[in-house]
Amino acid sequence: MPAETGSSTACSASPPVPVNEIDRSCRTPVVFLLACSQAWLVIGLLFGVISSIKLHGPGFLSGSEWLAYGRIYPAAQNALAYGFAAQALLGVGLWILARLGRVTLQGAGIPIVGGIFWNLSVALGLLGILAGHNTAYDWLEMPRYASGPLFFSYLLIAICAIMTFKLRRECALYVSQWYLLAALLWFPWIYSTAQLLLIIFPVRGVLQAVVNGWFVQNLFDIWLGSLGLAAIFYFLPKTLDRPLHSRYLALFGFWALLFFGSWGGMYAGAPVPKWLGSLSIVFKVMTLIPLLAVGLNLYRTMAGKWSAVKTDAALGFVALGALCYLLVGVVGILSVLRTVSERTLFTLFTPGMTNLYLFGFVALTVAGAMYYIVPRLLEAEWPSGGTQTFHFWTSVAGIALVTLPLLFGGLTQGAKLNDPQAPFISVVRSIIPFLGLSTLGGTLLLIGNAALLGRISKAMLATCCGSCCPGLLSASQKPRALASGGKV
Amino acid sequence: MNQGPLIFLGALLALAASWCGMVVVPNVQIGRQQQVAAGPSNSRYPAIPSGEAQRGRDVYRAQGCFYCHTTNVRQSGAKFDVVLASAGTNKAALASGLRAARPGLTPAEVSQIMEQAPKPVLQGLTRAEAETALKHLTVPDAKAEIILVPTGPDIERGWGRRMSVAQDYLFDQPLMLSKQRIGPDLTTIAARQRDPSWHLLHLYNPQSKVNGSTMPPYRFLFEKRKIGRHPSPDALQLTGEDAVEPGYEVVPTERARALVAYLLSMDAQFGLFEAPLPVEPKRPDATTNQPSATAPTNAAPTNR
Questions:
Q1: Which of A338, A384, B12, B288 is 20 to 30 A distant from A430 in Cα terms?
Q2: Cβ atoms within 10 A of the Cβ of A436, count?
Q3: Using CA atoms, how far apart are residues B188 and B271, in angstroms rounded to an integer?
Q4: How close is the nearest chain A Cα to the Cα of B194, in Å?
Q5: Cβ count near B223 (within 10 Å)
Q6: pLDDT at A238
C-alpha cells in the first residue's frame, strides 16, 4: 500500500509484548484511575442523594450555605462527570490502548502524575462550587482555578495514551482504537473552546448558551460516548470470546457519529436564532444512523450467546451498559422532536436522561470493564462474597428508579406546565412523588457502589500487602495468580 | 482502516466543521448586538444594571438559583385582535362595517363599541381573519387597527408579555437561562411582585409566603441580632412561628438586599422589533395618559 509511510513508524518490527508484562505496566496508573473514579462515583452519588432529598424536603440541611441545593447539585454533577465518568473511561482507555497495541503503557509515570493532578483539580473545583464560585455554565461549573489544572492533567494522560498508540507493535487497528483516538483529540478542543469563550474572553449574551450547548453536546455524545463505545466494542466481543460481527459497519457507525453527533446542543424555543434549534434537531435525528449501526453490530455479535451474560459478570454489566447507550440515544432523539420537546423542556426529563447516561451507560460499562481488568492488573481474584450480585442488582434497580420516575415525572410536569389553568404550585407539588422515588434509586446506587469501592480497596490492599509483607496475610486473602492471565 | 493519522485528520475535520457551524457562525451572526431604543421613553435597552443589582446577580449565581428557576419565556404563537381606535363621525358606515365584521352584533352592542372606542371588536383571530375584518372597518374618519398578542402557556401564566429574545440577555454575564422549572420563571418577577419586603420574607421563609412551596429557606442571608438602642428599620416583620424572642431582630445582610435588588431589576417588558408587545391603543383625544381599561394587560402583579 502506498500510504504505508505514515504507519511504518507506528508499528515496529519488534515482537508483541507478553500480556503479563503489559498488565504490569498498567497496574499502578490504571488501578489508581479506576479506584479514584469509583471513589468519586460514591461521593457524587452521596451529593446527589442529598440534593435530591432537598428537592422534596426543602428544610433538609438548609442551615448550611455550603450545602444549599444550588451548590451541592452542581457539585454532584461535576463529581460524576469529571471525577467519575471521564477518569474511569480514560483509565479503561489506557489499558485498552496498551492491550490492543500489544505494547507496555508508555511513560507510565506520566498518567500517574496526570491522575493525581486530575483528582486534585476535581476536588478543588468541587470545593469552589460549594464555596459559591460556580461559573454558572452547564457541566463547566468548576471555577477557572480548577479547570486550568484539570486541562493540563488531561494533557498528561493524553500524552501517555498517544505515545502508547504511536509505539504500538500491532499494526492493525481495532474499532476501539478509532474511538479512543477521536476522543483524545476531542476533549482538549471542546474544553479549551468553552473555557476561552465562556470564562476567559466571554462572548456576549445568549452566545454563551450556544457555546455551552455545543460543549455539552460534544462532551456527552462524542467524548464520553466514544470513550464508552471503545470499552463496549472491546469488552463485548472479548468476554464473549468471538469476533465483532462487522468491522465495516463499525467503521460506518464511527464516522457517522463523529459527523452527526458533534452538531447541535440548542433546544427549540431558546432565545437564539431559530436555525440553531432546527439544525440541532436535524443532526440529533441523524444520530439515529450511527446508533443503528452500533446497535446492529453489537446485536449480531451477541446473537446466540445471550445466556453468557448470566455466567460472566463483566459481560453482564457491559451488555446492559450498551443497552442503556442505545436507549439513551433513541429516547434522546425522540425527545428533541418539537412536539415532544415542547413538553419535556425545563422539566425533570432532562436530569432523567442524564442519569440514564451516567449511571446506565457509563457506570455499567465501567463496572464491567473493572470486573475484567482489576483482577488481572492486581493479579488477584476478587475477594469472595456476594458483592458482585449485590452490586449488579442494586445498579439495575437504582438505575430504573433514578431514570423512569424522572422521565415520567418530567412528562407530567411538562403537561401541567403547558396548561396555564393549572396553578404553578400544583405543578411543583405534582413532581414530589417522582423525586422521592429518584432519591430512593440514588440511595440504592450509593449503597451498591460503596460496596464495590470497599471491594476494590480490599483487593488493592491485599495486593499491596502481598507484595511487601506476605506474612501478614491470612490464607484466604492471599493473592492468587489468575489462571486466565495469559488470555489476550 | 489502519492509519492512525487518517483517523486523526478525519476526526479533526468533523470537529472543525461543527466548531465553525455551531460556534463561529452564531458569533458572526449575533456577536455584535448592541443596545436598541425601546420602551415608552425610547431608552437604551437593555439598560446597564445598577451596581447593587450586579452584586445581587452574583449572589444569584453563587447560590445556584438558576438550577430551579428559568429566565426564558417561551411563546408558541400569536393571535390578532382587531381594535376600533376611534369611531370618528361617519357612524352609519361604521355601524354597518362593524356588523359585517362581526355578524352577531346587536345594535346596542354596536353603539356601545363605538362609544367606548378604543375597544376591541374581535379577539383571538388569525392574521388573515384579522385583515378581512379590518377591511370592513376601513371607514373614512374612523380608525381601526390590528394588534398582535403573543400567546403560549408561559405568557398566559403571566410570566411575561412576550417571548424572550437574544436582546434581553445582552449584559447577562454569566448567562443563567437554566434548564429547570422546579420554581417559576423569573424573567418578569419585578413586574409580578414589586414589594422588596415580600421578597425578603420569602427568602427567609418561602412557605410563609407561598403555601406548599418547595423552595429552601435562605436564612444564612439574614442576621439575627440583639436589638441595639433603636430597632433597625430594615428588620423583617416576622410573625407566627418565625417570630424571634423579644429583644432580638432579624435583618437582611448586604447579600440579601443585593439579591432582592437584582430580582427587582428583572423586568423584560419592552416590546422589541423581533418580539413586539400588544400595544395599548391610544385615545386620539387629550386623555391619552389615562391607561385604557380595555387594553389587554398582563402586567398586574400575579403570583402564580
A1: A338
A2: 18
A3: 13
A4: 19
A5: 14
A6: 94
| Nearest CB partner across the interface for B29, out of A218, A273, A342 | A273
Of A355, A373, A241, nearest in space to A314 by CA: A373
Sequence-ordered alpha helix ranges (H) in A12-56: 19-56
Residue B275 belongs to a domain: no
Question: What is the pLDDT, as a whole number, of residue A12?
Answer: 65
Question: Under an 8 A CB cutoff, do B12 and A346 touch?
Answer: no
User: What pLDDT digit, counting tens, does each position of B191-200 carry?
Assistant: 999 999 999 9
Distance CA B136, CA B100 (A): 6
**Within a domain: B302:** no
* Chain A contacts in chain B segment 165-184 (CB below 8 A): 165-184
Considering only residues B287 and A438, tell me which one the structure prediction assigns the higher pLDDT.
Answer: A438
Question: What residues contact A237, with CB distance under 8 A and at least 6 apart?
Answer: A243, A244, A301
Kindly report, residue by residue over A119-153, the tens digit of the pLDDT. Answer: 999 999 999 999 999 999 999 999 999 999 999 99
Contacts of B183 in chain A (CB under 8 A): 428
Is residue B68 less than 8 Å (CB to CB) from chain A? yes
How many CB pairs (< 8 A) connect A and B? Answer: 221
pLDDT digits (tens, 9 = 90+) for A300-315: 999 988 888 888 889 9
Please indicate whether, in this complex, the C-beta atoms of B181 and A347 are within 8 angstroms of each other: yes
* B142 and B115 fall within a common domain: yes
Query: Stretch A184-205: mean pLDDT, rounded?
Result: 95
Residues B217 and B250 in one domain: yes
Select from B67, B166, B182 the Cβ nearest to the Cβ of A205. B166
| Residue B292 pLDDT grade (very low, low, confident, very high; cuts 50, 70, 90) | very low
Regarding whether B190 and B53 lie in a shared domain, the answer is yes
CB contact under 8 A, A181 and B7: yes
Q: Do both B188 and B249 map to the same domain?
A: yes
Q: Which domain holds residue B85?
A: 78-151
Apex A144 CA angle, A141 and A145, nearest 5: 120
- Helix H segments across B38-180? 51-62, 91-101, 107-115, 127-136, 153-156
How, if at all, do strands B222-226 and B248-252 pair?
antiparallel
CA distance A22 to A12: 17
Whether B66 and B192 share a structural domain: yes
Q: Are residues B67 and B121 in the same domain?
A: no
Q: Pull the grid cell for residue B290.
A: 389615562
Q: Which residues contact A347 (CB under 8 A, 6 or more apart)?
A: A409, A410, A411, A413, A414, A417, B180, B181
Residue B88 lies in a domain: yes
- The distance of B117 to chain A (nearest Cα, Å) reads 30
CA distance B188 to chain A (A): 15
| Per-domain boundaries in chain A | 18-172
Domain count, chain B: 2
Tens digits of per-residue pLDDT, A6-47?
A: 444 446 668 899 999 999 999 999 999 999 999 999 999 999
Residue A487, pLDDT score: 36
CATH number of domain containing B228: 1.10.760.10
Of B156, B170, B181, the CB nearest to A205: B170
CA distance A187 to A189: 5
pLDDT for the residue A383 = 60
**Among B132, B151, B170, residue at a domain's last position:** B151
**Cβ partners under 8 Å of residue A252, min gap 6:** A290, A293
Strand partners, B45: B36
Whether residues B85 and B208 fall in one domain = no
Identify whether residues B61 and B90 lie together within a single domain. Answer: no
Task: Classify residue B11 by burial, with Cβ atoms within 10 Å: 0-12, 13-18, 19+.
Answer: buried
- pLDDT tens readout for residues A318-351: 999 999 999 999 999 999 999 999 999 999 999 9
What's A18-172's CATH class? Answer: mainly alpha
Instruction: Kindly provide the ipTM of the predicted complex, given to two decimals.
Output: 0.91
